[in-house]
Amino acid sequence: MQLSGKTALITGAGSGIGRAIAVAFAREGAKVLLNDLSPAAEPLAHDLGGVYLKADLSDPEAVVGLARRALEHGPVDVLVNNAGLQRIHPVEEFPEETWGLMIQVLLTAPFQLIKYLLPGMKQKRWGRIINVSSLHGLVASPYKSAYISAKHGLMGLTKTVALEAAEHGITCNAICPAYVRTGIVESQIADQSRTLGIPESEVIEKVMLAPAAIKRLIEPEEVAEFALFLASDKASAITGSAQLMDLGWTAR
């Protein structure tokens, strides 16, 4: 049981990557605190013997409240900043309200949670912070200016926290996957299939994953197993890193 006796807070835990991470962590003995706006996270938390903590990460005060409620269950040993969203517009048409929303959820909320949970980790002289970033934390694509700006910022935050926290036995890393099989991605595939008039398999291989060497979607469980490794004692020498799961995208 790699995480026996540990408490982990996972944001965006109601579906996709967050759900898979919660399941993997609970399997390895962690007490899991699941944050999500989706009611699907509540029965999952019950099934995993964990706790559901509803909070809207687009509200800065709610994020602070989430941190405080999490600490009511004891020090948080592992923080997984996973919650996300996507909006696509050309830069000159990008709504400023949407920009602000995405920066808050994807960058400011992780900063806030780290800020308020880090002291408890320092006190225990052990902690793991895992930021679920993206391939787009390292490269760019058109029409995703807010998402890519936030994910690049998250990489800077990851490195800074890693340097500040290392002497306290705390690591901070980012996982940077290419397209993962989630509800958001599958809806994008279906939309492009209809728009382009080609099968969904061709959308994946020839459109979305054209730059990738491996032509398939990543499964949420694959990301979860990587997160589990980073949360374990086996990864104590890894910090400040961008852990790529990019299907060979950046090898070119």
UniProtKB/TrEMBL annotation:
<dbReference type="InterPro" id="IPR050259">
    <property type="entry name" value="SDR"/>
</dbReference>
<dbReference type="InterPro" id="IPR011294">
    <property type="entry name" value="3-OHbutyrate_DH"/>
</dbReference>
<protein>
    <submittedName>
        <fullName>D-beta-hydroxybutyrate dehydrogenase</fullName>
        <ecNumber>1.1.1.30</ecNumber>
    </submittedName>
</protein>
<keyword id="KW-0560">Oxidoreductase</keyword>
<dbReference type="InterPro" id="IPR002347">
    <property type="entry name" value="SDR_fam"/>
</dbReference>
<dbReference type="InterPro" id="IPR036291">
    <property type="entry name" value="NAD(P)-bd_dom_sf"/>
</dbReference>
<dbReference type="GO" id="GO:0003858">
    <property type="term" value="F:3-hydroxybutyrate dehydrogenase activity"/>
</dbReference>
<comment type="similarity">
    <text>Belongs to the short-chain dehydrogenases/reductases (SDR) family.</text>
</comment>
<dbReference type="Pfam" id="PF13561">
    <property type="entry name" value="adh_short_C2"/>
</dbReference>
